[in-house]
Amino acid sequence: MRSLGKPVPLAVRWVCCGAVLFCANAFLLDGAGAQLITTPQSTPSLRPSVGNIGVAAPSAIVDLGTNFLQKLGNEATVQWNGPPRSNNPAGGGADLGMPAAASDPRYRAWFEGYGLTSRMDAEADYAGDRRKTWGGVAGIGTTVMPGMSAGLSLDQSRTKVNVTSLGQSATIDLTQIGGNVAVESGAWTLALAGVGGFGNVDTSRPDPLGPSLASYDATIWGTLAELSYLISSGNWRVVPKAGADWAYVHADAFTETGGTAPVSAQDQTTRRARIFAGLEVGHSWFGDRSIFDLAAYGRLVQIVAQDISAVQFSAAGFTPVAVQGVAESRTGLDAGAAASLQLSQALRLYAVYDGRFLSNFQSHGGTVGLELRW
User: Fold this and answer.
1) Please, what is the average pLDDT of the chain?
2) Which terminus in the chain has less CB density within 10 A, N or C?
3) Where are the alpha helices (DSSP H) in the chain?
4) What count of other Cβ atoms lies within 10 Å of the Cβ of residue 316?
């Protein structure tokens, strides 16, 4: 065969092959180098789920403060002699108005036991929780002057919080001290209440090497104002009411112990203001020496201001993560019923049911108590 052209010298062939190999090698090395520079090895991030129980406990404390404030509002406006003056016959507080006779008692003490069960639904990075509370209340009240009363209460409770799907849990031991004042003018009654409390939170998270544990303190403050108007006919009564409450909770920072990667958390604050309006309907039956009363109530509740801080959780070797605090939905309904039996001038028994219903939260509570008068 004949060549189509002059043969390429061997030296030129070697030079061309060398150039091609050099360029290919340079491209691969540059590509590898660029990959190492642009995608360095990253530090693993904490999952938001590690902070679930850390944000659940402050939410539970807000709910406990709300329940105690409602009790104080009820206690401020209950009446001993005859049907309750405005609110349901939940016990506690002090009478409005001076006793009819000098021999009538004007002081009283009350003792209650109660239980609460509630559910917070999942939202965003939060898996949802279940809560159970057992507690007791003791208090004393007096008539200060005609049309004005005051009372003082002590609430001690223990709450179990479980983030069931994650196996996380918390125990909250909370002490609350509350006071109330009621002022009556004709059919109108204004009740004011305040709460201050402190407690300890113990949390637990599961870990392959054993649970990660933490213990820290928390405080709560709250206020309530409620205005009611009595409309009565015979032994029936209808009582429109409107009011507002405010709560503030501060949970301290903490660091876990145990487990493979103990977590540290910043402190958290929760501020919430609500308004509400509703109606109570009640009826009393009078015996020779006893009074039996039944009442039911319902009210719409609207959160008008809510500031719940996010909490940053960190652990050695991990990138920190911020977890938003748990918030209730802004609109809800409260409803309940109460029964009261006055056995004598010195003794009354009562039982109360209270429910709270929101789109992401439900709570059911029961209270039994007795009231002594002297």
Assistant:
1) 84
2) N
3) 10-38, 52-77
4) 8
